[in-house]
Write a structure and sequence with these properties.
The chain is an alpha+beta fold and 497 residues long. Helix content is 29%, strand content 25%.
Amino acid sequence: MQPLASTNPHDEDDGFHEECGVFGVWNATDAAALTALGLHALQHRGQEASGVVTLSDHSTDQGEFHAHRGLGLVGDIFGDAKVMAQLKGRCAVGHNRYATTGETALRNVQPLFADFEFGGLAVAHNGNLTNATALKRALVRRGCLFQSTTDSEVFVHLIAISLYANVVDRLIDALKQVQGAYSLVALHNGALIGARDPLGVRPLVLGRIGPEVGGSYVLASETCALDIVGAEFVRDIEAGEIVVIDENGLRSIRPFGRTQSRFCVFEYIYFARPDSVVEGTPVYGTRKRIGAELALESPVEADVIVPVPDSGVPAAMGYAAESGLPFELGIIRNHYVGRTFIEPTDQIRHLGVKLKHSANRAMLEGKRVILVDDSIVRGTTSKKIVEMVRQAGAREVHMRISSPPTTHPCFYGIDTPERAKLLAANHDVEEMARIIGADSLAFISLDGMYRALGRPGRDSENPGYCDACFTGDYAIPLTDLIGHPEREPALLAANGQ
């Protein structure tokens, strides 16, 4: 769900950002409230905006759609009883948005909705289309009028111009024209639909509330959203699969045939909530195994293991257990800080890390400290964290990272800087350690990461995961970057040329 073109407003923010969470419910009492709860559980996937569209009568073609969208957090947008009372119906779809680039404007807030010949359709999308610009250009030439700057709107126009008779066939027609990573949920007068791209890069799961016959179905980006609404996990929607849920139950369509999954490996490292189960694997346990593997690969004499909260906590626990060193919360995170609320002068930017993290001096003073974090992107935050730990009296500061070096940007729906701004793309590990001020720095190896995921190592012929941010192995064509002089440098830079 990436805007089609503009500049990144988050350049000062040093980190990865997932940009979307999706949720859908079919045939449930208080569908809007369940969707708002599901989006609340998926808040970590997007904090810029949120929206819900409901269908008041899903049993006929005359059902009415109701929508509410807003900028901000789920609780602020859907905390008003009057708003929820207007969202009538037993079916709903919802979306959390993180604005990867471009404006944070109401017109970009999903689910997108349009009236078609066959009735209304609401669409919520997580991911990024790599041929959206080319498709948009062709659609505009045909007379399509775009109302937003998101690539998600391409789906709407492709469905609109399709010559197929029913909505499912039109959606399949659209999906066969797009390239990229996507998980989407769509709601129309006859059904709730879920779909994943042929490589299954972005996640989508199916749950059920109540009995198998006559019960309610739920689609969500993660299992943690099923848990909050009391839904039983049924299964992952598979790579390249479309599921259609209607009055007759659930049916599966595979317009791409059986495909080889390339699920985003960074869901395990960082994006997914620790209590989610992703592709059959609990995230929390995986992160602990990654930390343990990191300890085996990169031991160092030290007194204490300290996570960089919150994302570094499980890996640090695994590192501590494997190394036999004590685990301590040497850094405390302030959970009530959003954007910096003070005019961002150079001095305030320098102090900004202390708004989010504070050193626990009693656990750090005089100690040889191993800091465990999930990644290094630009390196600016790591540098400030190391400096803060030293100021708290640490004798030595060693940094251990529970992902391989991030050397390439993501074009599949994750907000990452261009390659020139990625620290690991331009410096070796020793230089990176010097830049961030650490006594030593080590990343988990690519094979080590795969071992922690239960594989013997990375198979270059069949990796099983999308790991392009570490390897530059882009499994989906980057069509919009080819043949355009103003964009091709980004593609060449991405591929290290």
